[in-house]
Design brief:
5-stranded parallel beta sheet, 104 residues
Length: 104
């Protein structure tokens, strides 16, 4: 692996810090409901289903794919040969790779 996955740091009321590991995706996976924190997709396809929300950074490594049918709030970084399709909403910066916006 040519990169690291530092823990997410959440700051709660009163300044209490809580660390949680990021979600690392190896192979096809589906995100439903709400996920708070960073996600790194190594290979396969991550689908954020309609009605689901991801709050945090989303990194798609080369040759991986992400399909955003729900909502992603945060930065989206797409590797050189990675792809992304947005049918729902991408709220945040987008860097690199190929993004296909579907509809609207």
């Amino acid at each position: 692996m040519d990169h690291s996955h530092p823990n997410n740091i959440f700051i709660k009321a009163g300044g209490v810090e809580v660390e949680k590991p990021p979600l690392v995706v190896d192979g096809d996976n589906t995100l439903s409901g709400t996920h708070n924190g960073s996600v790194c997709v190594h290979d396969g396809t991550l689908t954020i289903v309609r009605g689901a929300t991801h709050n945090g950074s989303l990194t798609v490594q080369p040759s991986a794919h992400v399909a955003i049918h729900g909502v992603h709030n945060g930065s989206l970084t797409i590797g050189s040969s990675a792809t992304s399709e947005v049918l729902g909403a991408q709220n945040g910066s987008v860097r690199g790779g190929t993004v296909t916006k579907i509809g609207g």
